[in-house]
Amino acid sequence: MALAHELDKSVDRGSLSDESKGLTFGELIRDYEPLPDTKWRFGKPNYAKVNKFYFENRVMKHKEGSLEAVVTNIVKNWEVESHHIADIHHWQTMDIKAFKAAVNGGCPCNAQLMSDVGPYNMLLGET
Fold first, then answer.
1. Confidence of residue 127 (pLDDT cuts 50, 70, 90)
2. Do residues 78 and 99 lie in contact, with contact meaning Cβ atoms separated by under 8 Å?
3. pLDDT of 17-28, one tens digit each?
4. Cα dihedral: 89, 90, 92, 97 (round 10)
5. Is 71 exposed, middle or buried (CB count within 10 Å of its CB: 0-12, 13-18, 19+)?
6. How many helices (H) and strands (E) does the chain have?
7. Partners of 109 in the beta sheet?
8. Which end of the chain is more exposed for a tag (fewer CB within 10 A), N or C?
9. 83 half-sphere exposure, CB direction, 13 A CA radius
């Protein structure tokens, strides 16, 4: 993922670049397409660095259509959404009305709270 100072907040709409999708590396690994009126939280995400590292270091390529490949795709797309789209009503990878997450028996968190604090902060909770 790009560092915060590398993101251009003025580019706050549109599809991911071919490089962010993995296409410049010869394989589509992130096929997320935002809804037409979706606004990116910090500017359009740039996955060029993380994709380069991924392709240089991965040790297994899952068979297309396998459960492992489907889960990998869902997780990559969920990461795009949960980190980079503030408006949960534009999320497509999960049912925001049904979503609840709790860590170590703590209070459940809904999708809006996860969007507000960020998914990693939600998982860390208060320490």
1. low
2. no
3. 999 999 999 999
4. -10
5. exposed
6. 5, 0
7. 101
8. C
9. 16
Q: Which residues pair with 101 in a beta bridge?
A: 109
Both structure tokens of 92: 């497509």
Computed from CA positions of residues 84, 67, 48, 15, in that sequence, does the dihedral angle turn out positive or negative? negative
Residues 48-83: tens digit of each pLDDT:
999 999 999 999 999 999 999 999 999 999 999 999
* pTM of this structure: 0.87
DSSP 63: P
Q: Tokens representing 16?
A: 């991911």
Angle at 91 between CA 12 and CA 113, to 5 degrees: 95
Quickly list H helices, the chain. Answer: 18-21, 48-57, 67-84, 111-117, 119-124
**Residue-level pLDDT at 68:** 96
The label of the residue with tokens 């935002």 reads 34
Alpha-carbon gap, residue 72 to 68, rounded angstroms: 6
